Amino acid sequence: MEAGGLLDSFIYGACVVFTLGMFSAGLSDLRHMRMTRSVDNVQFLPFLTTEVNNLGWLSYGALKGDGILIVVNAVGAALQTLYILALPWTHLSAARFRVVLLQTATLLGVLLLGYGYFWLLVPDPEGRLQQLGLFCSVFTISMYLSPLADLAKVIQTKSTQCLSYPLTIATLLTSASWCLYGFQLRDPYIMVSNFPGIVTSFIRFWLFWKYPQEQDRNYRLLQT
């Protein structure tokens, strides 16, 4: 096999393995919730936004005929659906349930409007592909940038307890592999949308270095 073909296979494999690994990270959270029957610290919105993101990229991959995008995002959408259905809904308070229901209805509305627009009002396949790619790119970038408020909280509290080191590594590897994949295909939507994931991952690594979790635990013990 030529060097170029070997590199291509490595990038394809990295995209699939790292992305599915990041998606499956939710299994540990789900297992913890099912065992403890506690949803106090659970944020449902990331599950919903990831579902919409997967479905968007799945449609983009189907339009483009990209098997890697189709497989990865089909599995990702299935996993997110599993997480949402398996959550201990009966343990939610009435107020929290209304919030979750409103978030779900809003994102479903966005999804239906998006599909109606792209499939009914944009008849040209090439124009549909470009506009859908732009939508997916903007949505993915917003997802990568949404935790910036948490990063500001880390700096304010000098505590990284709310950050996950394994998830940060998974995000960096996944974002980097998709950037390479987008560069290889000369697809700006894939490449640009994943670059913020690399940037925010390095910001997290800097915070882990500046505010070590072991040091944070020792500080909290002294405070008690």
Automatic annotation (TrEMBL):
Gene3D superfamilies: 1.20.1280.290. The keyword DNA damage does not apply. It is found in: Cell membrane; Golgi apparatus membrane. It comes from the Eukaryota. One of its GO terms (molecular function) is glucoside transmembrane transporter activity. GO terms for cellular component: Golgi membrane; plasma membrane. The keyword Transcription does not apply. The chain crosses the membrane at residues 6-30, 68-87, 99-120, 163-183, 189-209. It is a multi-pass membrane protein. Keywords: Cell membrane, Golgi apparatus, Membrane, Repeat, Sugar transport, Transmembrane, Transmembrane helix, Transport. Interacts with TRPV2; the interaction probably occurs intracellularly and depends on TRPV2 N-glycosylation. Belongs to the SWEET sugar transporter family. Mediates sugar transport across membranes. May stimulate V(D)J recombination by the activation of RAG1. This is Sugar transporter SWEET.
